[in-house]
Design goal:
The complex is a heterodimer. Chain A is elongated, with a radius of gyration of 17 Å. Chain A has one domain (6-70). In chain A, α1 (6-21) runs antiparallel to α3 (38-70). Chain A has helices spanning 6-21, 23-26, 38-70. By secondary structure, chain A is an all-alpha fold. In chain B, α4 (59-71) packs across α14 (283-298), α7 packs across α8 (159-177) and α16 crosses α17 (363-387). The longest helix of chain B is centred in the last third of the chain and has 39 residues, at 319-357. Chain B is globular. Residues 475-483 and 485-490 of chain B have low confidence and may be disordered. The chains are: A mainly alpha, B mainly alpha. Chain A binds chain B through residues 1-4, 8-9, 12, 15-16, 19-21, 23-24, 27-29, 32, 34-37, 39-40, 43-44, 46-48, 50-51, 53-55, 57-58, 61, and chain B through 74, 77, 80-81, 84-85, 87-89, 91-92, 96, 99-100, 211-214, 216-217, 220, 224, 227-229, 238, 241-242, 245-246, 249, 272-273, 275-277, 279-280, 282-283, 286, 289, 414-415, 486-487, 489-490.
């Protein structure tokens, strides 16, 4: 089975760090952003940013797939 | 008409429309086992998205998440993190699982374990653990329907009879239709649920506080500790958050139905694109949280937090709107529940009963047995729903502690040729055993960490160590029994 590229894996680590491991840094109420407590705002922002990360990973994998097809 | 009648009529109409759409989708297709379980492997991005969204956003998201926002506060935010990260994980495993599924004609998760490890006992064990984990998840949905009908009838109808009716409907629907129907009902369900979530999430704070911002200001002022972790709990702090997010995001696609949904896709690319789009759907949940948090101030003192969302809607909106929300909620319970029933029944008939007791059964007989199992499983879950009183979130976390134990076997099976059946089997038994022990002896969380996560660590450790000491028999890789051909060309 073809292994995922290191670039794609790195892009996947970013959301994990942002939404999971760094919880102690962003789990607070102040400053409120757009009327939301900071922790809720942070997670909502990262839902969108994670989708962006995966889009980049997708582009990467697609580019790699075409490259391997051309040079078998 | 009385408010209760308006409300119940609306719910009934919505459920009727949803089910009709499902029945129409199944018409004119021959329902063999492959069509019933994996929709003939022909779903494009849109249908896969609908199927996965349909089975992901369950009553848990609707009532359970808002219920925890109400009763627990901050810790409930784990839901937003874990759903998003689950799709990140899916990007790296679902396309590979799909590829394996196509080459080996897999329909279920147990098929995967059998093809990769060649050990029927391991495959059977995966099957049993999977079916058992479905029971709390099914129970969650049935309990949800009961709560909805009881609130919508303004406490005129008890949850019990409502649950019984819901189970009867479910069984009828699943037995006739199969997976394609479920994907189509999802359309109705998802549109309604998104609209309802937006309306509630914006409407409730607006009506009572003049907006979302002022609502959080008021809540931060009245209960400053409620919005951060550990919120209203003593032991659900940051360590719990990290371990639970890891447990649930890794385990998300280990649910047998989510795993099998990958097989319905037309191509591996479909699944990669899904992984990019699906996180955005999680935004809907944020609005449900708004309503759950607003309920803390609007309807304080509810004994059962899972009633918070519906109670606050009942206090804020006219009866017909409560009916729309209830209808959306009922479909939100019934669509995933039918997928769970379908998957669990197929697992039982195809991967447990046939290989062990009746190897001569034809596919048509297996399909008939699966339909009978739908009834049995529906009844078991109904009984449990009638007897139990745990919160919806706790039910889901119980199931997760079990299914995530498949993760080492799946991921290492895909990417590490050395991993052996013995190692995976030992790890699985230790993981499940550990999780059951910790949970039944009320040691969850242990040292602030989620019990399922600790069990998963133990499981991983055992699989890796045993595989290093006793690797899978490695003669000619392509001739090795029970090894997928694709595992060798890694």
């Amino acid at each position: 089975m073809r292994k995922p590229s290191p670039g794609a894996l790195l892009l996947a680590v970013i959301p994990f760090v942002a939404m999971c491991f760094s919880v102690a840094l962003w789990d607070r109420i102040e400053p409120m952003v757009f009327g939301l407590p900071f922790n809720l705002f942070w997670l909502i922002a990262w839902i969108v940013l994670s989708s962006g990360c995966m889009w980049l990973a997708y582009r990467l994998e697609c580019a790699r797939a075409t490259a391997t097809e051309r040079a078998p | 008409m009385s408010p209760a009648a308006v409300c119940l009529a609306t719910i009934f109409a919505i459920v009727a429309v949803g089910t009709t759409v499902g029945f129409l989708a199944g018409v004119r297709r021959r329902m063999d086992l492959e069509q019933w379980t994996v929709g003939g492997r022909g779903f494009g991005v849109a249908l896969v998205f609908l199927l996965m969204a349909g089975e992901v956003y369950t009553t848990f998201a609707f009532l359970g998440a808002s219920g925890w926002a109400y009763s627990r506060g901050g810790p409930t935010l784990y839901v937003l993190a874990y759903l998003t990260l689950a799709y990140v994980v899916s990007f790296f495993i679902l396309p590979q699982i799909w590829e394996a599924g196509r080459r080996h004609g897999m329909q279920t998760q147990s098929d995967f374990f059998l093809a990769r490890y060649g050990n029927p006992w391991l495959a059977g064990c995966v099957c049993i653990v999977g079916i058992v984990c479905f029971v709390p998840y099914l129970q969650l949905q049935i309990t949800g329907v009961g709560l909805i009908v009881s609130i919508a009838s303004y406490d005129g109808i008890a949850p019990g009879p409502a649950m019984a009716v819901a189970v009867a409907l479910l069984v009828a629907f699943v037995s006739v239709n199969g997976v394609r129907a479920v994907a189509w009902v999802s359309i109705v369900k998802d549109v309604l649920m998104v609209l309802a979530a937006l309306a509630i999430g914006i409407g409730v704070p607006l009506i009572h506080f003049g907006g979302i911002g002022p609502m959080f200001q008021a809540l931060a002022h009245a209960h400053p500790a409620h919005l951060t972790m550990p919120g209203a709990t003593r032991n659900l702090g940051h360590a719990w958050f990290i371990s639970t997010v890891l447990l649930t995001s890794l385990g998300f696609y280990m649910w047998p139905h989510a795993f099998a949904a990958a097989f319905t896709a037309r191509s591996a690319d479909t699944l990669r694109r899904n992984a990019v789009v699906m996180p955005l759907y999680t935004l809907t949940l944020a609005f449900i949280f708004f309503a759950g948090f607003a309920a803390v101030l609007v309807v304080p003192g509810l004994a059962n937090g899972d009633l918070a969302l519906l109670t606050v809607v009942r206090q804020s909106f006219p009866p017909w709107f409560l009916g729309v929300v209830g209808g959306a909620g009922a479909l939100t319970a019934m669509v995933p529940a039918s997928i769970f029933l379908l998957t669990a029944a197929t697992l039982f008939a195809k991967n447990l009963y046939r290989p062990l007791f009746a190897p001569a059964m034809s596919d048509a007989q297996v399909a008939r047995l699966a339909r009978a199992m739908v009834v049995v499983l529906g009844l078991i879950s109904l009984c449990l729903a009638l007897l139990s009183s745990t919160t919806l979130v706790s039910l889901l976390l119980t199931g997760y502690a079990g299914v995530t134990q498949f993760f080492p076997g799946v991921v290492l099976g895909l990417y590490w040729p050395r991993v052996s059946a013995r190692a995976v089997f030992a790890g699985l038994l230790a993981g499940v055993g550990g999780a059951v022990f910790l949970m039944t002896t009320h040691r969850d969380p242990l040292f602030g960490l989620s019990a399922g996560f600790l069990a998963l660590c133990l499981n991983f450790l055992i699989v890796v160590l045993l595989s290093l000491v006793m690797p899978a028999v490695s003669r000619d890789p392509s001739q090795r029994p029970g090894t997928l051909a694709w595992a060798a060309d890694a």
